[in-house]
Amino acid sequence: MPSALSVLLAIHCKKTESVDLKTPIHKYIALTYSETEAREAEDDLETIQQLRSTIANASTNGMQPGMRDSLAKYCRCLTAIETRFPISKEKGHAQVAFTWYDAFKSSKKHTQYNVHLEKACVMFNLGAVISQQGLACDRTTPDGLITASKHFQEAAGLYAFIQEAEANKVDAPKPQDLSADCLSVMEKLMLAQAQECVYHKAVMDKKSPTVIARLAKQVAVMYEGVTRGFGLSSLSGYFDKSWPAHAAMKGSVFQVEVLSQTAKALQAEDNIAHQVSVLREAFAVLQNTKKLAKAVGADMVDSVSKVQEGVVAALARAEKDNNTIYLQRVPAFGDTGINIQGALLVKNYPPTNLDASTDNLFSSLVPDSSAKSLSKYTDAVDGVTRDARDRLAAATDTARTRLKEMELPEMLEALDPRSSKGTASALPSALLADLEEIQTIGGVTHIQGILAEIGELKRTCEEELVAAANALNADAQADAEARAKYNDQFRATPAPTAAKSYWDRIAQFRASLAQAAASDEGVMDQLAQHQEGFAALAVDAAALKLPRLQAPMVTTGDEDPAVVVASLRRDLEALQALASERSGIEEALNDLKAKDNILPKIMSVNQQAHDSLFASELKKYDVLVADIKRNSEAQTELLARIGNQNKVFREVFDVHGWRAACEAAAAGIREEARTFKGLLDHCSEGLRFYLGMHEVERRCRQEAEDFAFTRSVQRDELKQDIERSKRAEEADQLARRMAMANMHSQQSAPPPAAAYPAPPMTSTPYAPQPSHPYAPPPPPPYAPPP
Question: What does pTM read for this prediction?
């Protein structure tokens, strides 16, 4: 009997009516080409007509051997028809009417003179047949599950392809089963079932509960997407109610499976409290699952009930273990922090058997020589444009390299007192890299942010220690009250003795925090001392501290500094104009190639004239090739002139001396950068210290609270034992007094004292609670900065 975790769906095939393809297309070929061409195409037309008759039976014989291949082959035939013969109601076209019925509303009929309706419907049936093949696979074996998953992914790929390539070309009104929403739902359903097969194979392969939970989570998420698709307003009332009910039930039951597998993983980790919480959540989800299963069928209700029995049994075992052994507090499911992420292992398989390029239909209507000639011309154009682009790229690279070698235009920008770009180039490369790194992370603001985070962690650490101390103090107070009330009868281990290890650890942590706080003070002092210097650790700010490049006060040579600078600027602007011209040439080249379609011209001349036609057409590229050559030669001449002017510029403005002065001025900046990086490293070390300290203190606090809770439970049990002993002793004393009184009485003797046995003594001094193992010592406080 199928279960809620295994039942799957297959898509229905669309029904169609018989169509006469042969006569209208034969007539079109005869009128457009010739009677001879029409006679030569008769065999191909007969093949297509027979295929059409075969695939028309897909709705009733979808699982017939060879039906899938027939559907794929007929799709390829339709591609050949589409590219050669226009089909419509227009005069002079092949007038073929295609009639199809809706897959899910079989009474709805659609008729169109549109080959794209035929292609979309045939592809729809091809996807349906593939889904039926997936459903028919033996899914009780690993190989069968792999095959089924592959089929469902292929079907999903087909429905996605229909939506992208064919459905939008169908005339309105479009069949609803070819709408974007319906095709999307079919695609998602097939992918969800493919993922489900992957999940079942993982179960069969006995993968870990964690792996199975992630796979089940993905299945649940995908079925939830299918359910949302069924709920779209455009599909309201379109599908049978069992379809959306099936998807909703599957999403819910796999969510239960996620929780069940997660509970198994938690059990292996001895995390019983979380296991109980997860199983309770699974039981709650199952109540909704049972409601959803009722809309699917009685067998699904029975299947879900069996799942519930397993969850209930696992929950009962876990609660019993927790109540008798672990004694852990069970959190609410929302507080467990459990968030299983799905693992998607399926995807759409694009159609691989619909390429019509290998078929040889209607070959006489499109001569191979024309196709080969077009390919030859295309190769020639590719060669011309590729060479032109290479020359353009080489010219651009040459200009960029030469300017970098001459440090232009940075040297000219260094003359502008309002700009720091040129002066920044005078910074030593190592210092420039350090400043850029400091600027990228945010400079002194970054250190302040780390210190703020350290302060927050320090406060949290102190709160953890206070919480641990409060738990121990509360236990000590309760212990003292019990001893004051029961005196020597209260024989539990005194609180100071039992909690000594915890108090020792708290004292150690507080000492470490005090030492770290002293180190933090040193960091703050050092940051305050260097606040102004650190604020200037940016490329622009550092550049402003360097000497400016200036013209000499007295000119000793024949060159006028102003004239040298003006000439250099003018030539750099001309070089930029050449670069812009190259961009325009490349754009024009791409545009010319995109519009270069000479197929009509090839079809209008005989094969012997093709070579002369190609030579004539390729001349349209000569103008652009000549422009590239002229641009490259002009740039070569301009770069040579710029190089000569740059030598004069460097001599007139004593660039070498200016760089030496910048190097000397950068020493202070370099020292500030070194101090900044040292302080940053120290702060980072402090942050790591507090993070480690917070973790060990959190464990200490948790252990102290657990210790106090355990002591409280044992203390209550001992009190109860003392009270029972006290009541038993009082009952014995009363019985003895009554017996003594009755010995002097003339009445009949009372029943023997044995008739009133004392309650059994069950109190035993409980052993001291062993202290929790000492937590790993916190990392040593980081040393103050040098």
Answer: 0.51
